[in-house]
TrEMBL record:
GO CC, alphabetical: cytoplasm
Protein name as annotated: NAD-dependent epimerase/dehydratase family protein
Sample GO molecular function, one term: aldehyde dehydrogenase (NAD+) activity
Cross-referenced CDD domains: SDR_a4
Length: 294
C-alpha cells in the first residue's frame, strides 16, 4: 500500500539541488515523488537520504538530458546560468525536456532590474540588466516565457536577492576587513533567508499563477554597509571601514564593486497576498537573533 501511494504521487523534478534545493527537499517529499538532477554521482547518497531519487545529468550536455524528457509535470529550476556570455544555454537545454502544460518554478535574480537609485518598485518594473550575470538571467526568463507560451506551461518566476542564513553570511569578508561604501554613497540591498526561500518555492508550487513574477524578498530595508555592520556587531567582528565610491573602486575587485553599484528596494506584496507566505525571518535582525554567535 505504501509503495502504491509513493508511485501515485505527482512527480517533481528539482534542477540545481544546492543549498536551497536541499532545504526544499524535506518540504516537498511527502507531497511529491521527487527527482533531483545532479552532475555529481558522489551526491547520490545525500540526495537519497533527503528523500529524492538522484538523476545523473549535466545541463551543459544536452544529450545527457534527453532521457529525462517528460519525466515530471512539476519542475523547480534552481540552476544558475553558465559563468560567461549573455545567454543561458542551460535553460535552453532544460526547455527541450519540458512536457507540454508542465508547471515550472524558476528562481531568477533581482539583479535583472539593474540600478534603480534606491527606488521602491513592484514586479511590473521593466528589467534593465547592467552586467553579464543579469543579462543571462533575463535571457533565461525570456526562454522560459517562450516555452510557456508555446507549450501552454504554467511558469512562475521568483526574483531573488541576496540569500543569507547560517553559513551564508559575510563573515570572511568582515574578518578580512574588506571596505564598504560610506553612507552617502551606499546602496539599498534586498535579502531573503535561505529557509524562507525554500518555503517560497513550495508556495509557488502550490499557488503560483501562470506567467507571474514574484519578488522573493523579506521586509528588510537596509543599505549594504548597515547590513555588514549588523552582522559584524552580532558576531563581535570589526565593522568594515567605509570609503567613498572612487576610493572603493581602487580597493576592491571589479566583480565585487559591481554588487555595490546597484541600489533598489522591492515590494513583497504578491509574495504575502498571492502566495500567502508568512516569513519565518521577516528581516535580517530577526534572523540574526536565531543564529548562534561564534
Amino acid at each position: 500500500m505504501e509503495i502504491s501511494k509513493k508511485f501515485n504521487k505527482p512527480r517533481l523534478l528539482v534542477i540545481g539541488c544546492g543549498d536551497v534545493g536541499m532545504r526544499l527537499l524535506p518540504l516537498v517529499r511527502e507531497q511529491y515523488r521527487v527527482f533531483a538532477l545532479t552532475s555529481q554521482r558522489e551526491r547520490f547518497a545525500e540526495l537519497r537520504a533527503a528523500g529524492a531519487v538522484p538523476l545523473l545529468a549535466d545541463l551543459d550536455q544536452p544529450a545527457s538530458l534527453r532521457r529525462l524528457a517528460g519525466l515530471a509535470q512539476h519542475i523547480v529550476h534552481l540552476a544558475p546560468p553558465p559563468g560567461e556570455g549573455v545567454q543561458d544555454r542551460r535553460t535552453r537545454n532544460v526547455t527541450a525536456i519540458l512536457p507540454d502544460r508542465a508547471q515550472v518554478v524558476y528562481v531568477s535574480t533581482t539583479g535583472v532590474y539593474g540600478d534603480l537609485g534606491g527606488r521602491m518598485v513592484d514586479e511590473t518594473q521593466p528589467v534593465a540588466p547592467r552586467n553579464a550575470r543579469a543579462l543571462r538571467r533575463v535571457d533565461a526568463e525570456r526562454v522560459l516565457r517562450a516555452w510557456a507560451s508555446r507549450a501552454q506551461g504554467r511558469l512562475s518566476i521568483l526574483r531573488v536577492p541576496g540569500i543569507y542564513g547560517a553559513g551564508r553570511l559575510p563573515l570572511k569578508r568582515l574578518a578580512q576587513g574588506t571596505p564598504a561604501l560610506c553612507p552617502e554613497d551606499d546602496v539599498y540591498t534586498n535579502h531573503i533567508h535561505a529557509d524562507d526561500l525554500a518555503r517560497v518555492v513550495l508556495a509557488a508550487l502550490r499557488r503560483g499563477a501562470a506567467n507571474r513574477i514574484y519578488h522573493a524578498v523579506d521586509d528588510t530595508e537596509l543599505k549594504m554597509g548597515d547590513y555588514f555592520d549588523m552582522v559584524a556587531d552580532h558576531f563581535g567582528l570589526p565593522r568594515p571601514p567605509r570609503l567613498d565610491r572612487a576610493a572603493l573602486a581602487q580597493a576592491v575587485a571589479p566583480t565585487l564593486l559591481s554588487f555595490m553599484s546597484e541600489s533598489r528596494r522591492l515590494t513583497n506584496r504578491r509574495l504575502k497576498e498571492e502566495l500567502q507566505v508568512r516569513l519565518q525571518y521577516p528581516d535580517v535582525a530577526a534572523a540574526l537573533r536565531c543564529i548562534k554567535r561564534l
